[in-house]
Design brief:
With 341 residues, the chain is α/β, with parallel strands linked by helices. It is built from 18 helices and eleven strands. The protein folds into two domains: 6-122 and 250-276, D-Maltodextrin-Binding Protein, domain 2 (3-Layer(aba) Sandwich), CATH 3.40.190; 124-248 and 305-339, 3-Layer(aba) Sandwich (D-Maltodextrin-Binding Protein, domain 2), CATH 3.40.190.
Length: 341
Amino acid sequence: MAGKTGISRWLAAGATAITLALGTASAAHADTSLLNVSYDVTRELYKDINAGFIAAYKQKSGATVSIRQSHGASSAQALSVLQGLQADVVTMNQPNDIDLLAQKGQLVPANWRARLPDDSAPYTTTMVFLVRKGNPKHIKDWDDLAKPGVQVVIANPKTSGNGRYSYLAAWGYRKQHGGTDAQALDFVKAIFRNVPVLDTGGRGATTTFTQRDIGDVLVTFENEVSLISSGVGDGKFEAVYPSVSLLAAPPVSIVDKVVDKRGTRKEAQAYLDYLWSPAAQEIIAQHHLRPRDKNVLAKHAAEFKPIRTFTVEEMFGSWQKAQQTHFSDGGTFDQIIVDRK
């Protein structure tokens, strides 16, 4: 096939994001650089956030700052920081990945959530479905993902916050419909029997579905689905909203040990503070993420379809309990993987 489709160009552009950021930093002869270690479906978001912050910080302080980006599966990214990747800030997709830095590396304080508004989560999203044009398998809700003959693309919950949210959303759906934990386990087992490949991160799952043409439905963040179905996917896909899903509130934090070592705390704090500014909240909304700013959210209300959601805390008690029960070694997800073969 001659040329690249819109989505393949988009995916290819994401793969070069770090190189471009580094090149920009060199060209600008920046006074200070920050490294933002993030999850893998935020490449496009932070490209625009970074440009806005650099301009705003220059205008306010007169100083030049550059931002380098690292993207990958959220939990794998957290492990990289724990093992020495010098992130000034982390912008992850679920709290456990920042808790890991506090508990295992003492890189951030245990109370990191309290240092910024909204428990340090500048936006929210949820898990929805992307299907092929015309929805040939008539997928409408979580029940349909467990039906024989339906191939479901979900990122690996052991390595990806994206996959973890998808797993917990399906489990919670069954519990909300009167199921016991045993019935929820059977339900999620049935879904994962339909998963042909477990990519390590959300963007890899997107590539599997959209470029490799594997699967009937992709389960991923609303912003990823909206981006593809609204134009990048060349009209080949459409979004489906389930009746209920899990609320995701991706958190952010300074990495204290790194910024104090590098002398970048002031710039890193300004960078994270900027995420709650009206300008950044507008960028967030334009990237199909639900902003915290009520005025910005109201402006974009037509885009964000109403959907009933529940939180991890409401359904599972806490992220720590969910992690221990479902995703630790020997947890329910390990049982599911063994049983699906």
